[in-house]
């Protein structure tokens, strides 16, 4: 299993295809247009999600980095930092 999390059931259904054999065929044959990252295997049906995802591949972007005050974790997404902070709450 992986650490994928989402608030939307439809996103989970699409993500689960990643773990199944022939998942690319199923995604390509679906009626939903998928936007794909050219750097990794990330796929989404929302163009804005792809734009947000692409930030993780930018080395020297002007995007603000959100840093954990407890460890060395850093991210370009505030929401990801909030999720990460739960790790420290669970371990305390």
From TrEMBL:
Keywords: Metal-binding, Zinc, Zinc-finger. Residues 35-62, 66-92 form the C2H2-type domain. Coiled coil: none annotated. SUPFAM superfamilies: beta-beta-alpha zinc fingers. InterPro entries: Znf_C2H2_sf (IPR036236), Znf_C2H2_type (IPR013087). This is C2H2-type domain-containing protein. It comes from Molorchus minor.
